[in-house]
Amino acid sequence: MHTENTYEFGLVGLGVMGRNFILNVAENGFSAQGYDLMPEKAEALRKEGASVGKTAATSDLNEFVSALSRPRKIMLLVPAGRIVDQVIEDLLPKLEEGDLLIDGGNSHFQDTDRREAYLKSKGIFFMGAGVSGGAEGARKGPSIMPGGAAEIYPEIQPIFEAVAARYKGVPCVAYLGPGSAGNYVKMVHNGIEYGLMQLTGEFYQLLAELGGFTNADLSEVFGLWNQGRLQSFLIEISSVIFSQKDPLDSGDLIDKILDKAKQKGTGKWTSQNGMDLGIPVPTIDTSVSMRAMSALKANRETADRMYEKPKRTLVDKAELEEVCEPALYFAFVMTYAQGLHQLSEASDEYGYNLNLATISEIWRAGCIIRARVLDDIASAFRSAPGLPHLLLSGDFVDRVSNCVPAARIVLQHAISNGIPMPALSASLSYFDAFTTGRLPMNLIQAQRDYFGSHTYQRTDRDGTFHTEW
């Protein structure tokens, strides 16, 4: 029990995410105190929290730490990088053995491992906990992905389970594994997010340019898709976006938004780490590259004038809509499959002992990549523990196979009309390669041996061989 001046949960960083998260905590019956260097942010929480449970806010770090019940549970929702290290150094002299710090930001998983080891030497527990769902999720229920020392998790578990999103009554949070497991899972979550967003954009462009779909048409189509197997947060909000009128001018807002996408790094980290592990995630790789491509706006506009495009052949609206739905579902499944495969391999490499069924389950609500298909994915991994890859699940063979012809048709339309769909292309090539028993790497091995004496193996006998070509 807490006394009048003792709070069960502390949070550092009272931006929109932090304020919303702490209000969520208080609304679910836990006393919570926030801290921010900027007095106006602390005041904003005091005003918003006046009628929401027991909350307090301060810009005095001593007051903040001394008012927390022990072991202290302090969550950081501050920008990743040096700021996290600075906050840790500011807090350390005021903490006591057994206290718990939780990094709720998008920190690189290797930074989390470093910080955990450092704080452990000081007698302080440290967890990395990915939080997905944006500001609205923080307030109404995010998906939370915690990792760290298993023995300290029960201290924060009741709070996390109370504030997390729920899927059919089940909290979308679970202890995922030791060390940086939570931050790693959130990183790959964000990589999958990059892939799904790029794919959604590609199908938007194809429908508009080859099918003549208006924004109103697109809003309706995405709304219909959201009622079926493509049901997901990104499809849902896309339907809303297409119907949004421009508040500053006439027309639709989507047509006034500059086509330059930014990124904060988590997608790139997923791609880089996939390369480090030797795990192919081409849909994610391509999606990261296309954000970089979008930044070349001036060059793209110049090249657009310099090079002739194929003459466009419009496709019947109904026909195009009919093939796009299964093609997009196929590509979504490929994106999840790649991300989950990376998680599987990383689990072995880093000793996380991840449960892919559990991860799929906590992604079903609250987070940006929530989707109906995750229920099926969770079932596939739940029914076959140790399944190395989603495409090797018997549950998905028909689901995927039935959509492949549509994906080929859509890509043919795009290629013949000069419409870039690199994420769909990467998804289909990934599927084709993964389902091909013999790839042309025998030639690559021969070439490597020819110019570098790198040796090769044979199909008909054991051993390593080299040829004087």
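Next protein, fold it too.
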Amino acid sequence: MKIIDLKPGDPRLTADLLPVLRELRPHLTEELFLGILAEGHGQGLRFTAAYDTDGVCVGAAGWRLVATTSLVRKLYVDDLVTAATARSAGVGHALLAHLERHALAAGCTALTLDSGTQRTDAHRFYFRERMAVTAFSFEKPLG
């Protein structure tokens, strides 16, 4: 498996990563994704792709480094998804390990993410990865 941090403008963002990301975020069109990339990059948003030995993208992670008063600096994972065809093959583990190395190199005190309450399979995976539930996430839809 090959893990690659993709830079803004890299055509693999839409050609390879977006189809995998849409398994988690089906509302994303290419146009919307490109708009989010343009705005989000200035806010620290980055994307990492996992490729299998045949060169097929099988995993995607969206992430950013964030300064906070509670953790000082953390790596926050916006998105973490393994293609349905590649689940239970170590893709998620490899992506998290890659992101953890980024976090340690950046002097982060934690790697954090939110996961929808309905995603019980993902929760089992996070617990296996030695992640803990440390907070509730609250949301108020607007508009």
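About the second fold: The first strand starts at residue 2 and ends at 6.
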